[in-house]
Amino acid sequence: MRILLVVLACTAVAQAAQIPSDTAAAPSAVAAARPPPVQPLRDVFVRLATREKVVALTFDACQAAQHMSLDRGITDFLVARRIPFTIFVGGRFARDNAPDLRELAQYAFVDLENHTWSHPTDMRLLDDERVKSEVLRAATMIESVSGRRPRLFRFPGGTADDRTVALVRALGYRVVHWRWAEGDPDPKIDADHLVAQTLSRTRPGDILIFHVNGRGWHTAEAMPRIVDGLAAQGFRIVPLPDYLPGG
Fold it and tell me: Each residue of 171-183: pLDDT tens digit?
């Protein structure tokens, strides 16, 4: 249910994001199929490769048709505290938020990774060429903005299967998801709720997922208490790439 909520929030008014308006791609035979339920997958990291009491802080910066902006309330706090974090950036988001992302890219503890070009609702419904195009087009934009080539990838809403994971891995990416979702695109989940659930649910090695595209409605308000609360519990926040196999 939370995965669905994340997808709906990121796509906003773009139910048609399967075929973005700035491409001429036609619906494939694959797209006509009913989407299967999301299953646990091999070769998808949902936690860090360690038994240490550490966590990784990640954010999705997705944009389908509706313009989204970087939530500076989140990033300014984390940068001021020099806390490592990863943003999975959509290509359209990178295009429309280039100055902010270029500024973040100057910090070695900020990681900018790939989250597709247009945030399709379910990449399992796309044919092979469209899947690869979503990844490669986003990578080109992210690298042009940040000067860095992304090496990690996150599927929108976690909707992947063996075929799509294999396609992304063949492009040189490691796929990173999460063990449980915060659900911060739901405006009913206020800052107190975010803090309480994060501090009660987090386990060593967790990859935490929030949103930094203006759809994490109360995330900026909650973030200082989350960071301080995790530290009080003995957790360290570490760079995501450093704690993945092959990093």
Answer: 999 999 999 999 9
Name all domains of the chain by residue range, CATH numbers in brackets.
2-11+48-243 (3.20.20.370)
pTM for the predicted model, two decimal places: 0.85
What DSSP letter does each residue of the chain carry, written as one string? -HHHHHHHHHHTT-GGGGS-TT--PPPPSGGGSPPPPP---TTEE-B-S--SSEEEEEEEE--SSS-----HHHHHHHHHHT--EEEEE-HHHHHHTHHHHHHHTT-TTEEEEE--SS--S-GGGS-HHHHHHHHHHHHHHHHHHHS----EE--GGG---HHHHHHHHHTTPEEE--SS---TTSTTS-HHHHHHHHHHH--TTBEEEEE-SS--TTHHHHHHHHHHHHHHTT-EE--GGGGSTT-
**Residue keyed to tokens 């902010």:** 100
Taking 70 as the threshold, does the pLDDT of residue 29 lie above it?
Answer: no
